[in-house]
């Protein structure tokens, strides 16, 4: 069972490396690109969480309850 | 995954027994038995690479299947059932129509019916560009942080760079990473099989070390279309005799001391082969284009050139100083448009006066695309606009047509309709050099004006003899039908291979009768992975990527030969089927024909 999962994961990891051309680069380069990918992802995530969510909340006039940190009217105001 | 860095030491000794072509122990019978046994037990692995571990179960099933096949007497290159270089001809009673146009449909319809082409899937195109940009970014980071391991000019302060910066950047940081897949040294005749000299790299392609071992591979990468590249047989014997009689080189040009009866005979034979008045031969195929075009064209002439034409043609055209207009690959409407505009508007640099002459330049078989020129339509356009036609038959001569006469033979066109027939002896004839055939007037003009004739050294006698003998065999003048059999075998191989690839579900380009079969894999990594994996399975192929192809169209190019047997092709196709599943190469969305393909 575990073997199967590892096989499956390693196979698709290999396919992922292949389509992003990371298969043919050195290990440190692979790590660098993944760090860049992760950083970009985090920046986007933070932007979406802090700016985009309250922006759309303001547009439609509601704030979801799942985000206790964000109150109505916070973030960018649309006038 | 990291093929290169980790497996330098461990598998060498193990695989030596299974893969080494030479260096056998004293008792060959025992060795053979042991060989067989190890083959049964162990995964095949070429010394320089380990097999990429992908789907374990699939690999198990397929390798078990393969081993069973081999046990039943199936083909495997490592078994070395026969000596290299012998052309094996198929023995079949069934009537087979060799490659030629059917002539039932109109030329245009027939072209579209027989050509395979598919647009690249959108997500693959996006990924290819993304990957290319990633490689570029990593290259720049790499260049910024480390000093490249290349020789540097010193004491050159103030000079501009002598070598093009992007080109060297590209070859250092993109091409270098999979450099082990190109320029691989071989140590045998490139016949139906060849022996690769194994090498490893411990620094990601900056440098290579020879391991001292060799790998016997099925050869799907040489332009040995008719299987004349052989170290034994009539051709080799005659060449050897000629070398003993006439020596190896004349060390002089044809205009001076390099002229012999052999070359005069060869030229007459070439003219007869194409059914034209006269022919002239040169010692180098590339130079035949690059140095003869400037003597035929001058500034004020217009050349209408196919966009996929070979570098030698492009170089020749640039040297000539003629105006070049490019038309879309094999697109007759575009050719018609370009010609019409040229005739109507004339030469803008000369105030709209007519061009001195207009010449259409096309190739018979395009080596990267695997496509065949639409000759009947080109000839019709040429006659309509009174332009000249220059046909480069480098890949088609010998390989196309029921008599091996190239695309003119294939389309049953009159060779005299083509003003200049050019081709090389490097491919089908298993030799070297090039020719130009046409009217007596043309050839006499070239004898007087061609740089390749006046200044280049004449063809070496054994090389000329190889061409002469193989040409006689193709024409059937040696009294056998070996030539005919080879032509039929090649046509049969080409169709079978293409149909099976289509059935597998990979995208191929080109015409169904063309012996060059490009299989699209799009990404650099996939080129590298496919070439490396096929080497572990004892199949040698050639990959082609940017800049030889557009960025988006990386491909593996299979070159078929009359020397290949059905068993060899079946072995290769089974392996390709398996790895295209593993690597995701089955891009084709066309409906598949699931019926068994008849050979």
Automatic annotation (TrEMBL), chain A:
What residue intervals traverse the membrane?
31-49
Judging by the UniProt lineage, the source's domain of life is Eukaryota
Q: Which UniProt keywords apply?
A: Membrane, Transmembrane, Transmembrane helix
What is this protein's name? Uncharacterized protein LOC115624818
Q: What gene name does this entry carry?
A: LOC115624818
TrEMBL record, chain B:
Q: Which GO terms describe its cellular component?
A: membrane; serine palmitoyltransferase complex
Tell whether Acyltransferase is among the UniProt keywords.
Answer: yes
Which InterPro entries does the UniProt entry name for this protein? Aminotrans_II_pyridoxalP_BS (IPR001917), Aminotransferase_I/II_large (IPR004839), AON_synthase_class-II (IPR050087), PyrdxlP-dep_Trfase (IPR015424), PyrdxlP-dep_Trfase_major (IPR015421), PyrdxlP-dep_Trfase_small (IPR015422)
The record's family statement is:
Belongs to the class-II pyridoxal-phosphate-dependent aminotransferase family.
Please write the reaction equations for the catalytic activity of this protein.
L-serine + hexadecanoyl-CoA + H(+) = 3-oxosphinganine + CO2 + CoA
By what name is this protein known?
Answer: serine C-palmitoyltransferase
Q: Which residues cross the membrane?
A: none
Write out the GO MF terms.
pyridoxal phosphate binding; serine C-palmitoyltransferase activity
What PROSITE patterns does the annotation carry? AA_TRANSFER_CLASS_2
Q: Which CDD domains has this protein been placed in?
A: KBL_like
Q: Which GO terms describe its biological process?
A: ceramide biosynthetic process; sphingosine biosynthetic process
* Lineage top rank: taxon: Eukaryota
- Names of required cofactors: pyridoxal 5'-phosphate
Q: What broad class of enzyme is this? A: transferase
């Amino acid at each position: 069972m575990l073997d199967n999962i590892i096989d499956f994961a390693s196979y698709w990891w290999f396919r992922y490396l292949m389509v992003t051309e990371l298969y043919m680069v050195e290990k440190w380069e692979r790590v660098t690109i993944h760090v860049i990918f992760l950083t970009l992802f985090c920046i986007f995530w933070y932007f979406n969480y802090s700016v985009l969510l309250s922006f759309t909340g303001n547009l439609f006039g509601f704030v979801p309850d799942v985000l206790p940190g964000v109150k109505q009217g916070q973030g960018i105001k649309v006038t | 995954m990291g093929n290169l860095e980790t497996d330098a030491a461990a598998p060498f000794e193990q695989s030596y027994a299974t893969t080494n072509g030479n260096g056998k122990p004293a008792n060959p019978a025992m060795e053979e038995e042991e060989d067989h046994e190890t083959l049964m037990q162990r995964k095949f692995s070429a010394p320089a690479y380990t097999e990429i571990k992908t789907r374990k179960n699939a690999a198990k099933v397929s390798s078990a299947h393969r081993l069973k096949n081999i046990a039943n007497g199936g083909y495997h290159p490592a078994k070395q059932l026969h000596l290299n270089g012998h052309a094996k001809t198929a023995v079949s009673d069934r009537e087979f129509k060799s490659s030629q146009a059917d002539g039932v449909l109109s030329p245009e319809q027939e072209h579209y019916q027989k050509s395979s082409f598919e647009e690249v899937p959108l997500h693959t195109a996006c990924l290819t560009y993304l990957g290319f940009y990633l490689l570029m970014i990593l290259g720049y980071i790499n260049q910024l942080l480390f000093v490249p391991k290349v020789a540097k000019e010193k004491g050159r302060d103030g000079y501009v760079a002598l070598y093009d910066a992007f080109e060297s950047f590209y070859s250092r940081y993109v091409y270098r990473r999979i450099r082990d897949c190109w320029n691989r040294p071989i140590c045998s005749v490139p016949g139906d099989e060849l022996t690769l000299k194994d090498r490893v790299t411990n620094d990601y392609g900056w440098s290579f070390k020879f391991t001292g071992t060799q790998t016997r591979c099925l050869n799907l990468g040489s332009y040995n279309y008719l299987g004349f590249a052989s170290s034994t047989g009539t051709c080799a014997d005659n060449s050897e005799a000629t070398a003993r009689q006439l020596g190896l080189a004349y060390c002089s040009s044809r205009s001076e001391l390099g002229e012999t009866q052999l070359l005069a005979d060869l030229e007459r034979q070439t003219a007869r082969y194409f059914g034209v008045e006269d022919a002239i031969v040169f010692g180098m195929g590339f130079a035949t284009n690059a140095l003869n075009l400037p003597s035929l064209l001058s500034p004020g002439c217009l050349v209408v050139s196919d966009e996929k034409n070979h570098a030698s043609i492009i170089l020749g055209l640039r040297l000539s100083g003629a105006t070049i207009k490019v038309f879309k690959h094999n697109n007759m409407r575009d050719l018609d448009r370009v010609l019409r505009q040229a005739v109507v508007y004339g030469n803008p640099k000369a105030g709209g006066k007519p061009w001195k002459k207009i010449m259409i330049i096309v190739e018979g078989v395009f080596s990267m695309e695997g496509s065949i020129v639409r000759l009947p339509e080109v000839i019709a356009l040429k006659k309509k606009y009174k332009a000249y036609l220059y046909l480069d038959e480098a890949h088609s001569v010998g390989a196309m047509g029921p008599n091996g006469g190239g695309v003119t033979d294939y389309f049953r066109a009159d060779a005299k309709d083509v003003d200049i027939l050019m081709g090389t002896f490097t491919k089908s004839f298993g030799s070297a050099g090039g020719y130009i055939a046409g009217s007596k007037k043309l050839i006499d003009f070239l004898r007087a004006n061609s740089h390749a004739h006046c200044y280049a050294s004449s063809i070496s006698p054994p090389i000329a003899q190889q061409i002469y003998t193989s040409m006689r065999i193709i024409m059937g003048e040696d009294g056998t039908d070996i030539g005919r059999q080879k032509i039929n075998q090649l046509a049969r191989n080409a169709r079978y291979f293409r149909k099976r690839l289509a059935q597998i579900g990979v995208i191929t380009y080109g015409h169904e009768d063309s012996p060059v079969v490009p299989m699209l894999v799009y990404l650099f990594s996939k080129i590298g992975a496919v070439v490396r994996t096929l080497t572990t399975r004892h199949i040698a192929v050639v990959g082609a990527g940017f800049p030889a192809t557009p960025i988006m169209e990386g491909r593996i190019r299979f070159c078929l030969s009359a020397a290949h047997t059905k068993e060899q092709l079946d072995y290769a196709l089974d392996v390709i089927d398996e790895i295209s599943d593993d690597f995701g190469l089955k891009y084709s969305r066309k409906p598949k024909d699931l019926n068994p393909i008849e050979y």
